[in-house]
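Worked Example 4.2. Consider the chain below.
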Amino acid sequence: MQDQDTPKSPENTATPELVENVGNSAAAEQAVGPESAAGTDTLPSLAEQLRQAELKAAEHHDAWLRAKAETENVRRRAQDDIAKASKFAADKFAQSMLPVKDSLEAALATENATLESFKQGVELTLKQLVSAFQSANVTEVSPLGEKFDPNKHQAISAVEADGEPNTVINVLQKGYLLNERVMRPALVVVSKAKPAA
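Applying the procedure from the previous section yields the following structure tokens:
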């Protein structure tokens, strides 16, 4: 009876649990069988799993860093290409304009030129200019007799005239398109209906 009243020491209470754990691990080894006890078909330990996960994480981090660097390089190259394209966009057109400038300078440098030779020189220079415009897809808009189009024409005035109203009856300044986009609208005079008598 005295044994029941005495409190158990911590050592005494831990011992049955320890015995229980040892007994459970021994029972687990017996349940697993002799193959796992030999170590032929066991799961990797937690330390091994952690080491493998860390290796994979380092590998993925390295791949991510490489992909990020490659993306930065591609972005930088694209920005350089865009800057070069905008900087040298007029190169082809400027190359085709050089002969026009040369022709004009040659005409001005000619002494004792006749009016006829000046006229021929200007006509040849104009042909060079038209050729340069064609190579750059610059087209002329001269809408005489056409229906007024506010997208391509700018009406300066409207005058009473026979025929259909809103028709271009006079072109004061030709317009120009660059790849079908208006660079400069044509300045025009359009017709309006005569008042009924």
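The two ends are 140 Å apart (CA to CA). The chain is about 60% helix and 15% strand. Compare this with Example 4.1 before moving on.
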